[in-house]
Amino acid sequence: MWNAKIFTLFPETFPGPLANGLYGRALLKKIWSLEIINIRDFAKDKHKTVDDTPFGGGSGMLLKPDILAKSIDQNYKNGERIFYLSPKGKKFDQKLAKELSVEKSINLICGHFEGVDERVLTTRNIEEISIGDFILSGGETAAFVVIDSILRLLPGVIGNNNSKIDESFENGLLEYPQYTKPQIWEKKGVPEVLLSGDHAKIKDWRLSQSEAITRVRRPDLWQKYKKN
Question: What domains appear along the chain, each with residue ranges and CATH number?
Answer without folding.
Answer: 2-151 (3.40.1280.10), 165-227 (1.10.1270.20)
